[in-house]
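Input record, target 12 of the design panel.
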């Protein structure tokens, strides 16, 4: 389990300028945004506190994402709900690819594992009976 104050040190050529560290929460936000950008992902799983915060206007981009850092590995677990009718393996593969690409582009880090957990299916809102009435 990753510690809350654990930082990921970046390796770069010029050590004279200082060091760069990335908090695991930053990786969670990057992965959360990358996952929610994929067509077919309805929403990311959150908890009660994140749901209340969103109702109050605060967007939690890292919800539904868990990052575990070790000395040599970055493991990302994503918990999301898919839209009804999509190909789950295809959308899950796109989510994995999008997260890996976003992490590499923004941090130059490569995730060892990107695990996608489908926790639900979002059905389309059904129309009410009054929408189907024909006037005659």
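The sequence produced for target 12 reads:
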């Amino acid at each position: 389990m990753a510690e809350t104050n654990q930082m990921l040190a970046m390796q770069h050529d010029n050590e004279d300028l200082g060091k760069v560290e990335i908090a695991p929460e930053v990786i969670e936000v990057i992965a959360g945004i990358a996952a929610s950008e994929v067509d077919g992902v309805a929403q990311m799983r959150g908890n009660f506190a994140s749901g209340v915060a969103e109702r109050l206007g605060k967007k939690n981009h890292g919800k539904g994402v868990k990052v575990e850092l070790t000395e040599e590995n970055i493991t990302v677990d994503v918990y999301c709900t898919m839209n009804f009718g999509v190909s789950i393996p295809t959308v899950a593969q796109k989510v994995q690819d999008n997260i890996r690409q976003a992490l590499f582009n923004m941090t130059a880090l490569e995730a060892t594992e990107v695990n996608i957990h489908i926790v639900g299916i979002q059905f389309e809102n059904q129309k009410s009976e009054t929408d189907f009435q024909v006037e005659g």
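The chain is about 30% helix and 25% strand.
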